[in-house]
Design goal:
The protein is an alpha+beta fold. The protein is 54% helix and 11% strand. It binds magnesium ion.
Length: 709
């Protein structure tokens, strides 16, 4: 069949890249356009970022710009993304906020380049242009590289696609100088993304299979493997670059080094380097993990059973096929056409089989969770583009006039491409992700920044850890990267226990966390029990409820950041300490219900979900069950911004209380345990012992208290 998408000159090719890259960026400005008038999303006159983890890298970059950070502050100082950000902030004339906001758009859109370069190796530039237009804005890829999505995702697909390009280029062209691209991209990819190793290994394996099946006799392919293995070994990158350069010089200038014997010896040496530097450890470790899991758990003589985070995160199990297909291609139909196109493409250019590891990793998402879908995006875009080109060339059978054929083909390709882009653009328009924090919340953290010392701790739920550290420059106990059951337990315990127990637990956990950086405790709680001569964890925890408990000497201040938004996740927060640590079993779940949609019928208040308050009898009906109401509490801010409370005692033996948060138009129905918790007492009701806590920032969005002992 005649080829219709040919190789153009360099100028045209650069123009194509410019078109696809600009298109990808322009689409990413839709989100900016949609939110530009919403003052809640601005801080310091800049739109804020919309991904929680981004604040970790932003904190790292901020600290690098400052030139220092605190010991054990968990700052991402020196990580790849923070370093690149730091560099850009140094050389670009834009503000730090602008840089982190737009970096994902400009970096993520770079994906169009390796995709188009791959097509150029095949001498199919129009194919490349179509694939470039598609790949930059496909659903899941957009979601993870949109403006404001400041995270490593902005290059985690770009870099392996460059690796794939380097492999395809080398196998196709067989020129020694191209070999150097392999270590450059692999080293960059491993630096950027620590978990890159498995995909690199899979690609090396693919090169090997491809060579054995199709090109056994081609010595050059083994050179490719040598360069890959060197780049993947665990030596400092400078050594790897020097070794690669030396090899290049040898292959290029010393004829003798291109003999079979030398190449295979080098291949063995390179593979040995991988083995020696523990290159296969990640794989062995996983196998070990499966086999010896029981034994490892049994090793500890004293084992507490904390709650697993995976139990609350949406199960990583199967996702509906349609969602899977939409994420990869924007539409189920496109998905199937793309697969067909990829099969045709690999049939026409078998070198494209090298893309199978990336495609496979993307398809793993069907079993292993949505986050993998992005890996399939560039390969599927090439497949889709080929399908369009391929079917366009079939028009030749029907139209015989050259001019008419050319016009029809162009129209066909354009319309088809637009149809593929359409659902993806629609998704972009509908995908209105809010910023992580609102302006009002950041104002609070900014105030806190001025009050708190950098060594002080702020206790809050892990969801707010990174932004708290970024805006207030303090330390936190848990964050988006540190939130195992063990880490969450003390914080959950503090937030859901009465203020006295919360105060004791926070002081304990902060001081032991700091000590643990040096003394490396297996578990803070176990160490605390040792130091307090306790052998029964439940007894130890109950001792914290008493004012007689003697907490460790404070080395720093502790603040509690209690935001309104935590109300929605409070039952989840409670899960982590609502557990018998000896057995790992959940204890009876506390009752907590909140709603802002209700109907008052005079004598009866409907709270939704079959929950009804009978005002005359002072009873709460939960379906068929009737529970006496203990208290009815109204809280709300008056015109002066002062919190006013009204408490009505209903029944002595009541088990549930109803709180009406007037200023938020929200009802809370909760049992005594939740009512007495730190969060409800301090945030909702502002009931606190002035000797124990001090309210330092008061706002309807969040309250900050300082622990006074
Ligand atoms: Mg700091």
């Amino acid at each position: 069949m005649q080829k219709i998408s040919q190789s153009s000159n360099n100028k045209t090719f650069l123009l194509y890249i410019f078109i696809a890259y600009t298109f990808s960026i322009l689409i990413r400005l839709i989100w900016v356009y949609q939110f530009q008038d919403n003052p809640n999303f601005y801080w310091n006159n800049h739109l804020m970022i919309n991904t929680n983890d981004g604040y970790a890298y932003a904190e790292g970059a901020r600290d690098m710009l400052a030139g220092f950070h605190q010991d054990n502050d968990l700052s991402y100082y020196g990580t790849a993304l923070s370093s690149v950000t730091y560099l850009l902030a140094k050389i670009l004339p834009f503000s730090f906020e602008t840089i982190i906001l737009y970096m994902p758009a400009f970096f993520g859109s770079l994906l169009v380049i390796p995709v188009m370069l791959i097509a150029r190796v095949l001498k199919e530039d129009i194919l490349g242009l179509i694939a470039g237009l598609i790949t930059g804005i496909v659903w899941s890829y957009y979601n993870r590289t949109m403006t404001g999505y400041y995270d490593t995702d902005m290059l985690t697909i770009v870099l392996p696609t460059f690796v794939l390009y380097a492999l395809i280029l080398n196998i196709k062209e067989e020129r020694n100088r191209y070999l150097l691209l392999i270590p450059i991209f692999i080293i960059a990819y491993s630096w950027w993304y620590a978990q890159s190793y498995s995909l690199n290994l899979a690609m090396a394996f693919m090169v090997l299979i491809y060579t054995v099946i199709f090109e056994r006799e081609k010595l050059f392919n083994y050179k490719i493997l040598i360069f890959m293995f060197i780049a993947m070994s665990y030596f400092p990158w400078t050594y790897k670059i020097l070794a690669s350069l030396a090899l290049f010089v040898a292959f290029h200038f010393v004829k003798h080094s291109n003999s079979k014997r030398v190449v295979f010896t080098l291949l063995l040496v390179a593979f040995a380097l991988i083995l020696l530097t523990g290159g296969l450890n990640p794989i062995l470790y996983q196998i070990k993990g499966y086999i010896f899991r029981e034994a490892i758990a049994g090793d500890l003589d004293f084992n507490l059973h904390f709650f697993g985070v995976t139990q609350t995160v949406r199960e990583a199990g199967q996702i509906p096929f349609e969602v899977f297909a939409d994420r990869i291609s924007g539409h189920t139909l496109t998905f199937f056409l793309s697969i067909t196109g990829y099969a045709l493409l690999a049939f026409r250019y078998r070198i494209m089989l090298l893309a199978l590891p990336m495609l496979g990793l993307g398809f793993l998402a069907y079993q292993g969770g949505l986050r993998f879908t992005v890996y399939a995006v560039p390969v599927m875009a090439l497949g889709m583009a080929y399908f369009i080109i391929y079917t366009a060339s079939m028009l030749e059978k029907f139209i015989h006039k050259d001019r008419a054929l050319s016009i029809t083909k162009k129209a066909y390709i354009s319309i088809f491409t637009l149809l593929v882009l359409y659902p993806n653009i629609l998704h972009v328009i509908q995908y209105k992700v809010p910023t992580v924090f609102s302006k009002q919340e950041v104002e609070i953290l900014d105030k806190l920044h001025k009050i708190a010392d950098r060594e002080d701790y702020v206790l809050s739920w892990w969801d707010y850890g990174y932004p708290i550290r970024y805006y207030a420059d303090v330390k936190t106990l848990i964050d988006g990267g540190k939130h195992s059951g063990k880490d969450n337990f003390p914080v959950s315990f503090a937030l859901t226990s009465p203020p006295m127990a919360a105060a004791n637990m926070s002081r304990l956990d902060v001081e032991y966390t700091e000590r643990s950086f040096k003394e490396k405790f297996n578990s803070n709680l176990i160490q605390e029990m040792k130091d307090y001569n306790s052998t029964d964890v439940n007894k130890f925890l109950s001792s914290l409820f008493s004012s007689d408990f003697n907490p460790p000497k404070p080395t720093r201040d502790i603040y509690f950041y209690l935001p309104m938004r935590m109300l929605n996740i409070f039952p989840t927060v409670a899960l982590f300490s609502n557990i018998n640590l000896l057995t790992g079993k959940q204890i009876q779940r506390p009752f907590f219900y909140s709603t802002s949609s209700f109907k008052d019928d005079g004598g009866v208040l409907y709270l939704g979900n079959g929950i009804v308050l009978d005002k005359r009898k002072g009873l709460i009906r939960l379906g068929k069950q009737e529970v006496p109401l203990a208290q009815f509490i109204t809280v709300g801010y008056d015109e002066k911004g002062v919190l006013r409370k009204g408490v009505q005692n209903i029944q002595m033996m009541g088990q549930l209380s109803l709180i009406f948060m007037k200023s938020y138009n929200q009802f809370l129905l909760l049992d005594n345990r939740m009512l007495n918790s730190l969060y409800i007492q301090l945030f909702v009701l502002e009931n606190y012992d002035k000797d124990l806590f001090e309210l330092v920032i008061d706002s309807p969005h969040a309250k900050v208290y300082k622990l006074k002992r």
